[in-house]
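Researcher: Please predict.
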Amino acid sequence: MFNIPVRVKHLINKYDTCNPYELAKDLGIFVYEYDLPPELRGFFVRVLRRKMIFLNKSMTEIEKTIVLCHELGHVRLHAGYGYYLEASTSYYVPCKREAEANLFATHFLSYRHNIDADLIQRIISEKQPDPKMVHMILNDIMTCEF
């Protein structure tokens, strides 16, 4: 497994931002909001060397921020793959990469908000919830922050 907390800290220090939209721009990743099916929250693709993250424009700004952080996790941790995050379908398959992207998002968000990423990581390690559930919990935490 990657040392995700160190990677996130290094990334934030290197680019001097904890704003996921600014970071995406600094990394040369285009972020688009698009009318996606309701069950599809976002995805990352690379086409002809252009990196793009698509976000479902029907989501709230908080949800978009979380999904963007999650997709940035895929960009930084899982080169060579394309990803999408479905919110609530029976086809959602939890896997190690999804858990890592959620952990990346948790640590990234801890720099923007008063979230104890280490506590969340311990709870995730002990309970080993479905990565989709972690994403939903992050959304709830972010909603409480505002």
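Model: The helical segments are 4-15, 20-26, 61-77, 96-112, 117-127, 131-145.
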